[in-house]
Amino acid sequence: MANNTTPLYFHQLFLRIALAVALLSAVADRFGMWPDQVSAWGNWENFEAYTRKLTFFLPEILSKASGYVATAAEIVLGLLLLAGFQLRWTGLFTALLLATFALSMTFALGIKAPFDYSVWVGSAGAFMLAGLNGFPARQG
């Protein structure tokens, strides 16, 4: 039988990779790196239009800026999750970012949209990652 820490580290690794891939895949989509058949946006312009829908309550310049900030955050957090760096903080910031997306989607598009894209599930998973005990010492 494996020691008691093995399952925790496997689950933590699986959750980290799933969250990171979800974040980085969304970024790849807005840069046109996914084929049209599976793409949500396909290019930056379509992503900006979608962001404008979600941030209808902001002036256009802030809406546009929010797309850049969200993209930068998704890249940084995705890479930090893959690296396993400062997982409590990285998990917390990922959870808050995804919760912000989910709330924006809910207010702009209705309750179904964030559930269809599992944004609440991703946020919950990131909160769980942030709260896990027993990280390897280097990940503190």
UniProtKB/TrEMBL annotation:
Localization per Swiss-Prot or TrEMBL: Membrane
Its record classes its membrane topology as: Multi-pass membrane protein
Q: Membrane-spanning regions, if any?
A: 65-85, 92-111, 117-135
Residue span of the signal peptide, if any? none
> Is Transmembrane helix given among the entry's keywords?
yes
GO CC aspect terms: membrane
Q: Which Pfam families match?
A: DoxX (PF07681)
Keyword annotations from UniProtKB, A to Z: Membrane, Transmembrane, Transmembrane helix
Give the protein's recorded name.
DoxX protein
